[in-house]
Amino acid sequence: MTVKITEKMKFSPSFDYIDNGVEHGVFSPFETKEVILKKGQQIAAGFKPLACDIKMLKDVPVKLRDGVTIYTDIYLPTTGEKVPTLIAWSPYGKSAGTAPRYVNLFNMLGMGEAWNSGLTKFEAPDPAYWVEHGYAVCNPDMRGIAHSEGDTTMLGSQEAEDGYDLIEWLAAQSWSNGKTALTGTSYLAFSQWYIAAAKPPHLTCINPTEGLADGYRDLAYIGGIPDENFIERLAVNHVSATGAKREDLTKELHAEPLATADIWQDKVAHPEEITVPAFVIASYSNTLHTMGTFRSWRTLGSKERWLRIHDRQEWPYYYDEANTEELRRFFDYYLLGKDNNWPDTPTVRYSVIDFEGHNQTDIPAAAFPPAGSQNTRYYMNGMTRALQAQPEAKDFPVKYVAGGLPGRASFQMTFDQDTEFVGYPKAKLFMEVDGYNDMDVFVWVQKLDARGNVLSEFVVPNHGAALQDFTQEGASALRYKGAWGRLRASMRHLDDKVATDEIPAYTFDRVEKLEKGEIVSLDIVLSTIGLSYKAGETLRVVVSSKDELGGVMPGTPGGQVDNKGVHTLHTGGEYASYLQLPLMTTQSV
To answer: What is 357-404 written as a DSSP string?
Structure first.
C-alpha cells in the first residue's frame, strides 16, 4: 500500500514526457540494458570526456514495497570490485544531464558544461568522477516520473519509504559492498532529511548540501506568506510517460492554509531521528535553503556530524573540484574504510562575508554560533532613525503607506571599530495597521560602505548585465544582499515548544487578524548571518511592506503579498522595537 497520507493529497495530471533523446537527455529513450561507456568518450558536445570506462546499467527496474516499479540508471566501475553506492533522490530526470534546460541554466550562471561529464543528474554527483574513484552512482526516477509507475508525491513519508526500499535493494546487489550514501543539493538535500530519518539499515552516511526541511515553512508559506510561484516552477519537473498524476502543492496551498493540516505535517522533516554520520553544507545566502538547513543542523541526531558554511551558491560549491575532493574524503572514510583522518575535521567551519572581496572562509569552531557570539540588542530610534544600545524612554511612531513610496522605514548605525556578527539574528517589532486587518512585514539587514552605498555580492560566476537585471529585485539565491526575514502579522503566534529568545518559531495554526489601533508584537526570525563591518561602515535594517529581495530564481516572482493601509512601527517606551544581532566579542583572524 502507498502511505496513508496520499489519500489526502491533491493531484493533477503530470506533464508529458517528451522522449526524443534531446528534451530529457541523450540517454532518455527507455531501454533496460547494459552499456559500456569508454574512457575518452564525450557524452555530448561541450561536456568533459570520460576519465575511465564505465558500466551503465540502464533503466533497471526496482519494485517498491507496495508493488510499484521505479526505474533507475546505475553507473559502475568495470573492475568487478564490490563498491558502495551514492544515491541521488529527486524528481529530476535520471538521464537529463545533457537536457537543454540544464545546459541553459548552467550557462546563464556562468558555469558552462565542462565541469561535468553529462551523466550528471541535476544537482547530483557526477558519475564519471565517482566511478573513477571506486563508487557506484544510482540515479533513480521517483515514482510517477518518466517511465516509473505510480503517482508522484513531493516530500514526506512516501518518498522516505521509497528511498528506504531503493537503498535496501541496492545493498543486496551482487556488485554492492552493502554501503550506501545520499548526496546532492537542494531537492536532493531535503529528501535526505526524510529518507535518513526512516533509518534504512544499509544507509551509511549522508551529505545534505543546502536543502529546506519543512514543506510549509520553507516553501509554501515562508513567514506565513503564500508563495505558489516557485512551487509552480518545481512542478514542471513532474513529467510522465505513463499518464501518472503529480501531487499538486499549489492546490494544497490554497486548500490547507495552516501548518496543522495533515498534508503539511507529513512534510516536516525530523532530523532528530537521523543517526548516521552527516556532512552538512550550508550558506547564509540561499533564500530558499538557509533557514531549513540551519534548523536541521540544530536538531540533527547524528553524533558524528560536521557543518561547513561556504560563501557561494550551492551549485558552484558542490561541483568545485577541491570541494568534491573533500567530500570524497568523507565518503572514503565511511564507505571505503580508508583511514584518512576525516574525524579530525573541525566540527564547524564558518564564513564571514564582507561584500568587498575579502570573505573569510573555513574558520574552525566547535559549535555554531561559535564561541564569542553574543546576542546583542540594537534599539530603533524613530526620531533619528538610528540603531542604539538603549531604548528611548518615549515611543516615537514611524509610519509608511503599505506598497507606496517608499513603503518602508529603515534604521542605521555606523561602526567606530571593526565589527563582526556570526549566528542567528532576529527582529522584535511593535506594529499596527490603519485601513486593513493584516500586515506582511519584510526585514532586511544591509551593509553600507563608508560612502553610503548598499553592498551585495554575486554567489555565481556570471556577473553580466542580464544577471544584474534579474538579481536587482529578484533571483535572490544568486546574489547575496544580507540577512532577511518575513512574517504575516496574523500568523505571528509563537510556538512555545520550539521558539527561543534567540530564534523565533511559529505554530502557524491560527489566523489572528488585527483590530484598528491594536499594537502587536512581531518576533521575526532572520536568516543566519556571518557579516563583517569595518570602522566607518554602516549597518542598515529595512522594515518594508514589499518583498524587496524578490523571488528565488530568474523569471519567478516572489510570494503573494497582502498589504493595504498605513503601517505604524513603534520605537520606544513599552514598544521599544529592536534588532537583535549575534555580536562577535572576539574577532575571527
So the answer is: S--EEEEEESSSSPTTEEEEEEEEETTTTEEESS-BSS---EEEETTS
